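look at this:
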Amino acid sequence: MLTWTDWLVGLLPFGLAGILICLRLCAAGATKNVTAKLMVITFALLALALFGISLAAKGYRERNSANLIVGAAMVVYGLTTLRKKLSQIWEQFPLTEEENEPKE
């Protein structure tokens, strides 16, 4: 079973990355509502992957192949869906090079 410290340690790096994603989306012109919605989706997929890792590890320790397979499938699904979602977000909110260049 996952304790609150496992969730804290597991999601802390993702929380810091989430702050950076929020800043990037706001810099690209996303509204606060859109940014919040995308962050909820991102954290849900990360939580799914983290739970899958926990389930797979538990299945491996207990020699339960069903838990191991389901946990591994959850990890693969969560991370591939997250990668696709982040790619869609970057395409939807691109940072143009004109905005990044210093004005003279």
Q: What stands out?
A: The mean pLDDT is 86. The radius of gyration is 17 Å. The first helix runs from residue 4 to 27.
